[in-house]
């Protein structure tokens, strides 16, 4: 089944060329199907890129998914046009009376800033509190995962001496069968791109959290609240194959002398095109989340 997105959203044309099954909102109203309502809080600066990456994964499911795009009103976007936001996005004030089956909170390039000093932190806190009663399951990605762990469970981020960037090997840490991990290989890959991390022991020892997956090099990868309402992914499984390359070239052009992403370029040669080794993991992760933690758990009619 398709994802349901606005007819004129720029991502629509890209996804159609990739044969991702999508349906615009005009056609969707004619189907007598109760779609899953997913809201994406997009904190990424290049919102159109992030939209496409996430919609690609949400579209790889037998479920019909209706998407609402959300941005923080307390932060002025610098790299996304006001017209795009006005046409395709809503603010929290516009949706806070609604119920949603699932929510995704993306990463954001504000890792060097203490949470309380981020200019939209209070608004984000209000949204994360709202998720407890208005959303069946919330998936947090990268900085969004760190923000969620801090807000809900008091686990703060810590600075890294060097940026964690590259494609790393991960293993499953839970000995119990976990629905989110169903079908995972013993070893799988995912990109990371961050300057901070969280302490693995704090996650493992927290009574309300379960560590699901980690990397010997990149640390905590996936964790989940014991009540299964909150999922935290510290990497970027949604990234396109060229995203880390674009970040590296961007920072190089700025004269920042960035660290070469690890295990990414063939033979560590930035002149060679990288291979995407995490596609199957990313698709399975999002499919499992949609199926087991959203579709199987959400009420048909919210009260």
Automatic annotation (TrEMBL):
Keyword Cytoplasm set for record: yes
Enzyme Commission number(s) from the entry: 2.3.1.31
The reaction(s) this protein catalyses: L-homoserine + acetyl-CoA = O-acetyl-L-homoserine + CoA
Homology family: Belongs to the MetA family.
GO molecular function, one term: homoserine O-succinyltransferase activity
Role noted for this protein: Transfers an acetyl group from acetyl-CoA to L-homoserine, forming acetyl-L-homoserine.
Keywords associated with the record: Acyltransferase, Amino-acid biosynthesis, Cytoplasm, Methionine biosynthesis, Transferase
Binding-site list for substrate: 163, 193, 250
Marked site: Important for substrate specificity: 193
Pathway participation: Amino-acid biosynthesis; L-methionine biosynthesis via de novo pathway; O-acetyl-L-homoserine from L-homoserine: step 1/1
GO BP annotations, alphabetical order: L-methionine biosynthetic process from homoserine via O-succinyl-L-homoserine and cystathionine
Cross-referenced HAMAP family: MetA_acyltransf
Enzyme class: transferase
Site residues, Important for acyl-CoA specificity: 111
This protein's name: Homoserine O-acetyltransferase
Active site: 142 (acyl-thioester intermediate), 236 (proton acceptor), 238
Subcellular location: Cytoplasm
GO cellular component, one term: cytoplasm
């Amino acid at each position: 089944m398709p994802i349901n997105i606005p007819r004129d959203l720029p991502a629509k044309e890209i996804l159609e060329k990739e044969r991702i099954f999508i349906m615009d909102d005009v056609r969707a109203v004619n189907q007598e199907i109760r779609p899953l309502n997913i809201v994406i809080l997009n904190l990424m600066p290049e919102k159109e890129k992030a939209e496409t990456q996430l919609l690609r994964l949400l579209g790889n499911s037998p479920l019909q998914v209706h998407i609402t795009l959300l941005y923080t009103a307390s932060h002025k976007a610098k790299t996304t046009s006001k017209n795009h936001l006005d046409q395709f996005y809503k603010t929290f004030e516009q949706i806070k009376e609604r119920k949603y089956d699932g929510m995704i909170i993306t990463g954001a390039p504000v890792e060097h800033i203490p949470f309380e000093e981020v200019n939209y932190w209070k608004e984000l806190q209000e949204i994360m509190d709202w998720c407890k009663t208005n959303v069946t399951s919330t998936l947090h990605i990268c900085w969004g995962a760190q923000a969620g762990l801090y807000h809900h469970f008091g686990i703060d981020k810590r600075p890294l001496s060097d940026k964690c960037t590259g494609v790393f090997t991960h293993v499953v840490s839970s000995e119990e069968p976990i629905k989110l991990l169903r079908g995972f290989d013993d070893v799988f890959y995912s990109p990371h791109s961050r300057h901070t991390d969280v302490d693995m022991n704090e996650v493992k020892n927290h009574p309300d959290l379960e560590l699901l997956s980690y990397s010997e090099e990149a640390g905590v990868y996936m964790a989940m609240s014991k009540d299964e309402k909150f999922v935290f992914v510290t990497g970027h499984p949604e990234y396109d194959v060229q995203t880390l390359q674009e970040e590296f070239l961007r920072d190089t052009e700025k004269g920042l002398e960035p660290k070469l992403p690890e295990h990414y370029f063939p033979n560590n040669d930035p002149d060679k095109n990288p291979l995407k080794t995490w596609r199957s993991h990313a698709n399975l992760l999002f499919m499992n989340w949609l199926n087991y933690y959203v579709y199987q758990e959400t009420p048909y009619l919210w009260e």
